[in-house]
Amino acid sequence: MSAYSPVLDVSRPFQIERSALRGRAVRLGHTIDRVLTAHAYPQGVSLLLGELLVLAGGFAGALKYDGTFSLQVRGDGPVGLMVADVGNDGAMRGYASFDREDPPADSLHGLAALVGRGVLALTVDQSRTGGKTYQGVVELGDRTLQDAMLGYFQRSEQVPTGIRAAVRFDEEAARWHAGAVVVQAMPDEGGTAFQPRGSDAEDDWRRAMLLLQTLSDEELLDPSLSLDDLLVRLFHEDGVRVFDPLDLSFACSCDEDRVRRVLAGFGAAELEEMRDEEGAVTVTCEFCSRVYRFDEAGLRDLEGSSTN
Predict the structure, then answer these.
(1) What's the pLDDT tens digit per position in 32-63?
(2) In this structure, are 94 and 230 located in the same domain?
């Protein structure tokens, strides 16, 4: 294996040599902390959104796309919507929507308590580059996020999958961080999917899953333990090959021109209802909390552009 420094915010693809099973090891530090601290979420919401973010980082690396890979959770509970986006360039963002006047209690941990009856949607959006958009949806039921992901790939994609993920708030450093290792029996270059059938294949798959479950939260989250060292520690007897990493970072696609185009789509009466006491319209990005304010002159420009 080539040496790789123990940095945060990275996805490291790898292959287990003995079985040719492939996967990604992911660490999130600055990125997840930026997302979770931007909105002062209750602890239970932060833990769940953090898990969604690190899972998105882990599964995006398995796809070839030119656009955005998104995981979305929608439900009828205290948290109505959660989103985690990963661009093919490693740009990440995420947010959770909940009733801030009656926020979920910090004691409400777990998917069912926060989301209620809901679904998990996996979307690849390539519309901005002229490509197609693909989406798969799975009901959550009483499962965890990880179990829902496993079920989706097993049934919808017929890709055997294993996951170990952890999210934690470091009290001493006052920062969020997360880690995950995903192992999948991905199709080979000829499109033939690995299926754990037959004694050797079943043994290889079972062994990989047993090894994966030995990973502790401390190993997943320890910034002094590089992902390469973690993978060697985990799969050293079977051999492991790593590939070029994908650097992950927080980035939001919002900008003033995009907000202008959205507002220009509203009618004059709707814009009038949005005005504050000073006659301005303020828009806050749900992902990054950036505030866009349009005063009287700016609104006149919007009205003029909408009539052209």
Answers:
(1) 999 999 888 889 999 999 999 999 999 998 88
(2) yes
Judge if 164 and 183 occupy the same domain. yes
Does 83 reside within a domain? yes
Domain that holds residue 63: 10-250
Query: Which value, to the nearest 10 degrees, does the dihedral of the CA atoms of residues 233, 14, 51, 166 take?
Result: 0
Q: In whole angstroms, what is the distance from residue 298 CA to residue 96 CA? A: 30
Question: Residue 119 contacts by C-beta under 8 Å, 6 or more apart in sequence?
Answer: 73, 74, 75, 137, 138, 139, 140
* Reported pTM: 0.85
For the chain, give the longest Cα–Cα distance: 73
The span from the CA of 20 to the CA of 109, in Å, is 37
User: Where residue 290 sits, what CATH number does that domain have?
Assistant: 3.90.1280.10
pLDDT (tens digit per residue) in 170-225: 998 889 999 999 999 876 554 455 555 555 778 899 999 999 999 999 999 998 89
